[in-house]
Design goal:
about 30% helix, four-stranded parallel sheet, alpha/beta, ten-stranded mixed sheet, single chain, 12 helices, Spore Coat Polysaccharide Biosynthesis Protein SpsA, Chain A, globular
Length: about 425
């Protein structure tokens, strides 16, 4: 199915009249080497139940090498504005570029931020606008996010910070949308809504400022957490729906660096009293990984902590893996494989997403069952002809160089590299 057709899959779950608005809106989306995704997003606007002449669509291209700028200009012409940043500024820098353009060059009172890998439901913008209009203290309103690869599953309906566990607690994550009750469709006040679909007001940007230059991850969380300090609030309207590619289909190992570093900045800004504890937690985690042979992830942890101490932000210079989506590979062929994974949960997640089957001749090695046992198992398979699947901590395999020619690496969140 064409991704833009996803926008037509879901009708309203209740019979409440759909609000129609006629306010002008600046739509901002950021792309980096994702022409296919950004094109699908723009095409999904053909189904949007909002007058096209009221929308200024602005695409921020972070120096893509896939010809995104040229292709988008050629296909959509004056229907969109493409701004070339000249460098990979990440989501934070890209959205800041777009928001500055919206504030300084356009007169629209509303700015809609969208991730480049979402598809919008026809009524998504109207419901967001309705929430903003009904709540004078609203700094922003976010959508319910459904998984693009499994549209019946909810990724989140807003979120709250779990300061004790140093993570974002995404509301209703993993629940089945088709089973959701009407009371859960009511708009709600939350601490955070993802910039996968976030409608801001011009006033809120002026009052709360732009995003901190964190490159990716937690930049939108930081901005949302500023709102209550200024007497404003963040809302989520579950009737506003977008489909977003789930983390299981795109996460890469190096993301851990930005997660740790940016979480430390988040605590420094919003929960300073707990910063020493979370700092110690991440330091201990990195030592633990080192002792268990997970050298790459440990190195990312130590670098994140060190860069935080030095006050470094934005993008940092370290090699990025060239991952391809897991679903690009056909796993339906029944074949014997050697599975080397950190734990059973990672293996189960891989099998669920890929559709691969463990055949009778396959072998499974789990580090959670013992480091020595796993190392011996890999040693016994040094000359195997089996295809070898390893999860994202593949540097923890002492024999990885011997396997390199026949290994498919699965970083644990649904991406792979051959």
């Amino acid at each position: 199915m064409h991704n833009s057709d996803l926008a037509l899959l879901y009708k309203e779950k209740d019979h409440q009249e759909i609000p129609l608005h006629d306010d002008t809106v600046t739509v901002i989306m950021v792309t980096y080497n994702k022409h296919k995704y950004i094109r699908e997003l723009i095409l999904s606007f053909e189904h949007l139940n909002y007058k096209r002449e009221l929308l200024d669509i602005v695409v921020i291209d972070n120096a893509s090498a896939d010809g995104s700028e040229e292709k988008l200009r050629a296909e959509f012409g004056d229907a969109i504005t493409v701004i070339q940043t000249g460098a990979n500024l990440g989501g934070a820098g890209g959205f800041n570029t777009g928001m500055r353009y919206a504030i300084e060059k356009l007169d629209n009172d509303y700015i809609w931020l969208l991730d480049n890998d979402v598809v919008v439901h026809p009524n998504s913008l109207n419901w967001l606008m309705d929430t903003i209009k009904n709540n004078p203290n609203a700094a922003a309103a976010g959508s319910m996010i459904l998984q693009l690869d499994k549209p019946e599953l909810i990724s989140e309906i807003g979120a709250f910070m779990d300061w004790g566990k140093a993570r974002v607690d995404m509301q209703n994550a993993g629940e089945n949308f088709t089973e959701i009750t009407d009371d859960l469709l009511q708009e709600r006040k939350v601490e955070y809504c993802a910039a996968a679909s976030l409608l801001k007001t011009r006033k809120s940007i002026t009052k709360l400022g732009y995003w901190d230059d964190l490159f990716i991850h937690f930049d939108d969380v930081d901005w949302c957490l500023r709102a209550p300090k200024q007497g404003m609030a963040i809302y989520c309207n579950p009737r506003s729906i977008v489909f977003h590619e789930s983390l299981q289909c795109k996460q890469a190992t190096w993301i851990k660096y930005y997660n740790i570093r940016n979480l430390l900045y988040l605590y420094k800004e919003h929960k300073l009293i707990a910063l020493p504890l979370v700092f110690a937690k991440f330091f201990a985690w990195s030592i633990y990984l080192t002792l268990h042979g997970y050298f790459k992830n440990a190195g990312l942890g130590f670098k994140a902590i060190w860069d935080f101490m030095l006050g470094k932000k934005a993008q940092q210079d370290f090699p990025l893996e060239k991952y391809q989506p897991l679903m690009n590979k056909d796993w339906s062929e029944s074949k014997d494989r050697l599975y080397v994974f950190s734990n059973q949960a990672n293996l189960d997640r891989f099998l669920e997403i890929s559709g691969a089957k463990i055949t009778e001749g396959s072998e499974v090695l789990l580090y959670s069952n013992g480091l020595l046992k796993t190392a011996l198992g890999q040693l016994m398979n040094l000359f195997t002809n089996k295809e070898i699947i390893m999860d994202g901590d593949f540097e923890s395999s002492f024999f990885f160089p011997c396997f390199r020619k026949k290994v498919v690496v699965y970083p644990g969140y649904g991406t792979m590299v051959a």
